Every structure is written in C-alpha cells, then in structure tokens.
Backbone:
C-alpha cells in the first residue's frame, strides 16, 4: 500500500548542481531593481539637488532600464516643444505637467503691448518655430493612441502601465532619430 507523503510539492524550474532552485531574477536575466529602490533614488536625487528631471516618469523609466539616454532626452524635448507651443498658442497651462513642460511654458507673453517692431518680429518667429516643431512631433508619431501615450508620459508626467513600456520605447526611439539625438549605428 502507498503511503500519503506530506510536505510541500517540489518546485519546478532550473536547478543548481546542488539541487537548489535557481532564482528567476539571477544575474543572467538582467538588472532587476525593486520599485521601492527606484522611488528612493528618485526622491534622494531631487532632495540632494541633482535635477528635478530625475523624479519624473521618464527618469524613473531610465533608472529602471526601460529607456536609454537618447529616448529620455527625446521625451524631455517633446515636453519642451509642447510647452512652448501651448504657451505661444495661448493654451491654458496644464495642471499636472513635467518639469520640462513647466520650464518651456513660462509666463504670459504679449509683445504687442510694447509696440516695438523688433520684439513683435522675434515673437512671430518663435511662434512659427514652435508650430513647426510641434508639427514635427505629430508627423513622427503614428496615428491612433500613440500620441496620447507620448503626451501622458512626457508632458503630463503620468505613470503608465508596464504593458505600454515597449510601445513607449519604440515611439521615443523614433522621436530621438527624428530629433537627431540618436544616430544609427554603423554596421561593421
């Protein structure tokens, strides 16, 4: 007669020669950082005065290794362009925004009050440049929900579901190339 064996069932997975179970988060699988560690890094970076961009969602994704430097730079450039565009188009300031957006949005402008022709001409050139840069973003982001994803992370500084990180990476890689931030590597 067979006896009923007690205890835990044996876990499945790759094992060491000693019989111990290998962790799925070993060194071969990449750098896995705990979310609390990432949060601490971001908080300390800002409190130490490193840079306010370190505490953004783009900064968090860079610390986690989901984005590279060129993609993060493209994201901040997008926020900068959108901030300038909305400033010159007299759009209302976003209530939740990334530091790059806030820096570019700045204060209210009315060059027509001064009446100086040079000031007005400079203002109109800046408006034209902001419009062209914004249109470049729209041209390089495919239609559909992609623009909302880019705007929510880069401009509004909203945390998105991890399922969208691959899409965001692809979009920011495309924008980095469009902005000239990432050069194609030569095949050698």
Residues:
């Amino acid at each position: 007669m067979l006896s009923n064996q007690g205890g835990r069932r044996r876990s499945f997975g790759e094992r060491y020669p000693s019989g111990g179970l290998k962790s799925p988060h070993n060194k071969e699988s990449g750098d896995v950082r705990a979310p609390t560690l990432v949060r601490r890094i971001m908080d300390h970076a800002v409190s130490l005065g490193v840079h306010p961009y370190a505490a953004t969602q783009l900064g968090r994704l860079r610390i986690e290794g989901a984005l590279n430097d060129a993609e993060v730079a493209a994201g901040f450039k997008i926020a900068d362009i959108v901030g300038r565009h909305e400033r010159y188009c007299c759009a209302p300031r976003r209530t939740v925004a990334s530091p790059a957006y806030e820096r570019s949005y700045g204060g209210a402008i009315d060059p027509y009050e001064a009446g100086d022709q040079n000031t007005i001409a400079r203002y109109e050139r800046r408006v034209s440049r902001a419009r062209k840069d914004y249109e470049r973003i729209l041209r390089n982001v495919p239609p559909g929900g992609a623009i909302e994803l880019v705007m929510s992370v880069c401009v509004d500084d909203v945390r998105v579901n991890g399922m969208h990180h691959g899409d965001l990476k692809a979009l920011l890689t495309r924008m980095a190339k469009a902005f000239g931030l990432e050069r194609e590597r030569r095949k050698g």
Summary: Helices lie at 35-47, 57-64, 69-88, 99-105, 117-140, 146-155, 165-179. The chain is about 50% helix and 0% strand.
